[in-house]
Every structure is written in C-alpha cells, then in structure tokens.
Design brief:
DNA Polymerase III, Chain A, domain 2, elongated, alpha+beta, 281 residues
Length: 281
C-alpha cells in the first residue's frame, strides 16, 4: 500500500510540474503579446562604446543563444539600446544570459533589434582592439565598425521574449564559490540522468546541488540527502561558469521550481540564469 501511495504521489507531482511548465509557456506568450518589441526604427540609431566592453558583454551571453530552427526568434542576441547603455540578452528557453555595457555617445530613440548569430560572431571578431566601436541601426540593417573595419547584416524580423521580469528576481539563498574548485567538483562528481526531453530524446547529465547550512554548495551523489537539493544540466552549468569569467562567483538558489542565478560579485548587471531539471526515476 505504501508503494502505491508513493507512486500516486509521484504521478501527482509530475502532473503539477507539467501544468507549471504549460502555464509558464502561456505566460511567456502573453508577455510577448502585451510587451512586443518596438518596431525597427524609422530614424537611424547611432552609438559608440568601448570595443573591449562590448566584446566582454557578448562573451558573457553568447553561450545561451538558441539553435532550434523551430524557434528562430531565439537564434540571435538581443541588443537593447538605451540612452547611456546597451543591454545584450540571449536565451534558448532553458537558460538566459544578460549583460549591460555603457555607451559613450548615443543618437536616436530607444531601440531593440536581434542580431542573428552569424552577424553576432562577425561583430565579435572585430572587437579585438582597444578602440571605440561604432554601432548603427538603419531600418533592418545593423552595422558595427572599428577603425577601418566594418561588418553589416540584417536583423531578425521576430519578437524576442520579454525578459524584463527576470531582471529583478526575488533574492534567494546566496553561496560564494571558488570557480575552479566548483568546476572540478562538477566535472569529476556524480551525475544523474534526466528524463528525456522528448520521446526519442537522449537524457542529459545532471548535477544535483545542495546548499549546506554554512553556505557551502555540494554536488550530491547516490545516497546523499537530496530533500532540498535541485538538479541542473551539468554542461549548462559549466558553460555558465566559463562565460562568467571570474575566479569567484555567487550562486543564488530560489525554490526547486525557480532558476539558479550565476552572478559576478563585481558586476550586478551581468549574470545568467538556469532552469532546474526534473530527475528521472
């Protein structure tokens, strides 16, 4: 009888999780309808910013961009151009990365455009010096120039998901980590199998994390107490550590159903978030 009750409880929990995912997807669609991206500007937009800072911002988010052909709006990096700053965002639905850098000059209205990944990579390739980068949006054309070099391409004609509600996540449990030590713990520690994302999909390797009372993050193995632990895709965690590019980082945990935030201790405007993953039984 106890086994039947436990099996029933697991089915209920799975149903609740599936319902939560459907609700999140519906809310995301409504967000896009209620907060559509501004139309491509009728007036040209020009801005200047330090090339090393733009390079660092792109490096901090590029890893999270989507590659699913059925979701073309995620196959690029969002450039959100404000008066004195440029925010760049990338997401593949399972993770999101956000960075912000200052501009030195700006002429034109507030603009949001999506640079497709090939254009994003071409822009990054030009940002190898210390000079000022000149960025221009003219209709659906995005141009980046540094010195006498220039690259131009068309922006994606899609609406990018509204990420503003994720810029101010509720404060969770924070734990400071030594990045190299934590990376080694992930690479050599135990992994668990995820449930296949699709009927014919392959399970992913998951790392199950737990924050102890003294603020230490541990990678749980078989037989460990996982009552308050949360599972994440191990490769995605490793990508986030690399992109964060700091010897120490802050991991911010919410509930088992909310994202993990990977934050730099010296830059509150640059961070990534990673959705938890359900363990297979």
């Amino acid at each position: 009888m106890r086994g039947l009750l436990q099996a029933h409880l697991r089915r209920l929990e799975r149903g609740l999780s599936d319902a939560r995912e459907e609700f999140s997807a519906l809310r995301a669609r409504l967000d896009r309808r209620e907060n559509p991206m501004p139309a491509l500007p009728a007036t040209p937009v020009h801005l200047a910013l330090p090339a090393p800072e733009l390079a660092a911002a792109l490096d901090a988010v590029r890893f999270a961009a989507g590659t699913d052909p059925e979701l073309p709006m995620l196959g690029g990096v969002l450039l959100d151009i404000e008066d004195d700053a440029l925010r760049v965002v990338a997401t593949d639905r399972y993770r999101m990365a956000i960075a912000r850098t200052r501009t030195t000059t700006h002429d034109g209205p507030h603009t949001q455009v999506i640079a497709p990944l090939p254009l994003t990579d071409a822009i990054r390739a030009l940002l190898d010096g210390e000079e000022t980068a000149q960025l221009a949006v003219e209709g659906d054309l995005l141009t980046l120039g540094t010195g006498d070099r220039r690259t131009t391409g068309r922006c994606l004609d899609h609406d990018f998901p509204d990420c503003r509600r994720l810029l101010d996540l509720p404060t969770g449990r924070r734990a400071r980590i030594d990045t190299a030590v934590f990376r080694t713990a992930l690479e050599t520690g135990p992994v668990h199998a995820s449930e296949p994302p699709q009927q014919d999909g392959a399970p992913r390797d998951l790392s199950v994390l737990r924050v102890t009372a003294d603020g230490t993050v541990t990678v749980c193995g078989d037989g460990d107490d996982t009552s308050d632990a949360v599972a994440f895709d191990r490769d995605y965690l490793l990508h986030a550590l690399t992109a964060a590019a700091r010897p120490t980082l802050t991991l911010e945990f919410g509930t088992p159903a909310t994202p993990l935030a990977v934050r730099r201790p010296d830059d509150e405007d640059t961070f990534s978030i990673l959705m938890p993953v359900r363990l297979s039984e």
